[in-house]
Specification:
The chain is mainly α. The chain has helices at about 1-25, 35-40, 45-85, 90-145, 165-175, and strands spanning about 30-35, 150. Helix content is about 75%, strand content about 5%. Helix 4 crosses helix 5.
């Protein structure tokens, strides 16, 4: 009899615990934001993409120019070697000329690699700033509307469109940060 009463008491306590938790959950105000859409369509993101594309075009032109210069140097070196008398076309001379060419080629490759890393770093920094702005705009909207939780669209399978604040975030982002300069150092 005592155990039966204990079981009922535990059941009743559990029942109230579940329903009181449900009531608290119902009071939480949630909003959804599509971060990927904002990163794809905001004015600042478009500005970053255009700047990166321009820098890449310039970079590719530099690569082509340097490759052409290296090819010309290689051809010139080959013709110089052919002009040398047979006695001077020794293995040591060939190795020396080849080493000079390789040093120049490696220097060009290192320079291009450095430029690419700088561009990648500038892009990452710009996107981080953009993401930080998205966060701060979401925080502003959450404070204004008394929203308790803002989650990304990517974490939602099904949900009401009335929870979506993406358009509002995008509009504010476009006003606060219409473009973002790519700082390649």
């Amino acid at each position: 009899m005592f155990y039966r009463s204990l079981k009922r008491a535990i059941f009743i306590c559990s029942f109230f615990a579940v329903f009181s938790t449900t009531q608290v959950m119902a009071e939480v105000k949630i909003a959804v934001v599509d971060v990927e859409k904002i990163l794809a369509t905001s004015k600042a993101a478009e500005s970053i993409r255009k700047q990166v594309e321009n820098k890449r075009e310039t970079f590719l032109k530099q690569v082509k120019t340097k490759e052409d210069k290296l090819r010309d140097e290689q051809k010139e070196m080959q013709s110089e070697l052919e002009k040398l008398p047979k006695e001077e076309r020794t293995k040591e001379n060939l190795i020396k000329k080849n080493q000079e060419y390789e040093k120049a080629r490696i220097a060009v490759i290192n320079d291009l690699d450095t430029q690419k890393k700088k561009l990648d770093k500038a892009y990452t920094e710009a996107m981080n700033k953009l993401t930080g702005t998205i966060f701060s705009v979401c925080q502003e909207i959450a404070n204004e509307r008394s929203i308790d939780l803002v989650i990304t669209r990517q974490n939602i399978i099904v949900g009401s469109m009335s929870l979506d604040i993406t358009k509002d975030v995008l509009d504010r982002m476009n006003k606060q940060l219409p473009n973002l300069a790519l700082d390649v150092k």
